[in-house]
Design brief:
The protein contains 14 helices and twelve strands. It has 506 residues and is α+β, with helices and mostly antiparallel strands. The strands form three sheets. A five-stranded antiparallel β-sheet has the order 2-1-5-4-3. Helix 7 packs antiparallel against helix 8. The longest helix is centred in the middle third of the chain and has 84 residues.
């Protein structure tokens, strides 16, 4: 009996061994198939979720970009809204705006959410109202309400991103609603370069999962070698993808670095050209301003030397006065040159400290009042009452006084006798504004943008031949910029000029 059983084992052992191998193959294959199917399902879910997230992002971006689009068409709509809406006249205007863009639909909605006018007849829209709370929420909260979608009356209940603007006409509330077309608002993700790598990664993941499922089924029907070949193929594909990705990333970083270096180089070249132009302008203006007084001095000195002893006392005194006046003018020009050099490097020359701008304004006003009194000009000092600590700024007191003196001296210079120069100081929580106004002849409108340029002198100054080098207001602008401030001017011919010097409070 024992021998019989042994003979049976020897006869059927190869078949039993093959059956065991087949069972192991089928068992391992089923496990791999299940895992691969699960991976494929997860990949598809990730792919769909990513596309949905990208679509939501695109919707939000489009709504933010077009947030103010409805406001642009408000001036076109307002003339057609009186007590009632002139829809027959407004409809062609809306149709022309929609046709020019091709990206949106326009609706005029009253306070009761009813659509009063659009480019389509009421019978051709699916609903004649919009959800007015959504519209008011977007108008009130602006970017904080984004993303916010609204039903399009033409395609309801489909929701789309929109823009809205409020109108108040004859004590009634109106809203102009601009709804973006869906084919523009929901553009495919592949049109956005930023999300292409993510889409490509998801697609490759799905494809690889499918290929893995096929290879696993083939492996289950064949042998273990098929699975090893599949793993090798996956490994090579992953290595190639990583290599391509790294190459693109390195190329992108290199291009950004080259672009940054080229921009910096262009900026330096532009600064050098600007400095060269300023230097050329300075030398041309200086040579012109020095030539005239030096010619006068030389002429009168030659006359004095030629006449010698025959020159009478009165004539000699007049000649010496002219020589002295022109010498003073040359000295003034040299002083302006030194000022220009000093104010060209304010960052190095300034000595910063905290001080009261209110006291500084009072000092400048008191120092220049005698000039106005001598010309018969009234001076008005208007400063808000309050503690000096409310008007404390940080800067260089000497430079601030120079800026105030330059503007105030100009006001006294150009104000005729009997006029008024007003110096006022206004402040809020963050900034202080010094207003210096006069009742002079004013500045022509074409000269206002140029008065802060170096060596600029207005037509009236050149005509009256006043000793002005055209540097005072240029220095004022440089001082204000160095103190993080701003200088503005408003002028009306025949009425006067107002300068506003604005500085940040501590």
């Amino acid at each position: 009996m024992t021998r019989f059983i042994s003979s049976l084992k020897e006869r059927f052992s190869p078949a039993l061994r093959n059956l065991g191998e087949l069972s192991a193959i089928l068992k391992s294959s089923s496990i791999l198939v299940a895992c691969t199917v699960a991976l494929l399902i997860l990949s598809l879910g990730q792919y769909l979720a990513t596309n949905r997230a990208v679509d939501d992002l695109v919707t939000e971006v489009d709504q933010r970009v077009n947030l103010d689009s409805a406001k642009r068409y408000v001036p076109l709509v307002e003339p057609f809204i009186e007590k009632e809406v002139d829809c027959d006249g407004l409809r062609p205007v809306l149709a022309e705006a929609e046709a020019a863009s091709g990206r949106f639909h326009l609706y005029l909605v009253d306070e009761h959410r009813k659509v009063q006018c659009s480019t389509k007849e009421a019978s051709r829209v699916l609903q004649d109202f919009v959800r007015i709370p959504f519209v008011r929420r977007l108008v009130a909260l602006r970017e904080r309400a984004v993303p916010l979608l609204l039903e399009d009356p033409r395609t309801a209940p489909q929701v789309k991103p929109f823009s809205a603007a409020q109108l108040i006409r004859h004590y009634r509330e109106w809203h102009l609603v601009l709804i973006l077309n869906r084919h523009e608002a929901f553009r495919p993700a592949r049109s956005y370069p930023e999300v292409r790598p993510l889409e490509r990664y998801n697609f490759i993941l799905v494809v690889v999962s499918g290929i893995g499922l096929i290879f696993t089924l083939i492996y289950g029907a064949t042998r273990w070698k098929a699975r090893s070949l599949e793993r090798e193929a996956k490994r090579k594909e992953a290595v190639e993808e990583v290599t391509r990705h790294r190459g693109r990333e390195e190329l992108h970083l290199l291009s950004k670095e080259v672009d940054s270096m080229s921009k910096a180089l262009l900026k330096q070249v532009k600064q050098l050209r600007l400095q060269e132009d300023e230097k050329r302008t300075f030398l041309a203006g200086l040579s012109h301003d020095l030539r005239s007084p030096l010619t006068a001095i030389r002429g009168y000195v030659d006359a004095l030397m030629a006449e010698g002893r025959d020159l009478c006392g009165a004539s000699a005194r007049q000649s010496f006065e002219i020589v002295h006046r022109n010498t003073e003018h040359v000295s003034s020009l040299v002083g302006h040159m030194l000022d220009l050099e000093k104010y060209g490097r304010l960052d190095e020359a300034m000595s910063l400290t905290t001080f009261s701008i209110q006291e500084c304004v009072k000092e400048v006003c008191l120092s220049l009042v005698p000039i106005g009194r001598a010309k018969g000009i009234d001076t008005v000092l208007d400063i808000d009452s309050g503690d000096d600590s409310d008007s404390t700024i940080r800067g260089d007191p000497a430079f601030i006084r120079r800026a105030l003196s330059n503007v105030t001296a100009n006001a006294f210079q150009y104000t005729p006798p009997g006029g008024v120069v007003t110096i006022a100081l206004r402040r809020d929580k963050r900034r202080v504004v010094i207003e210096i106004s006069d009742t002079g002849p004013g500045i022509p409108a074409d000269e206002v943008p140029l008065i802060f340029d170096l060596f600029f002198r207005g037509a009236s100054t050149r005509k009256e031949k006043k000793g002005n080098a055209g540097m005072g207001l240029y220095i004022v602008k440089k001082i204000m910029e160095a103190h993080a401030g701003e200088v503005r001017v408003r002028s009306t011919l025949g009425e006067g000029t107002k300068f506003e010097l604005e500085l940040p409070l501590v």
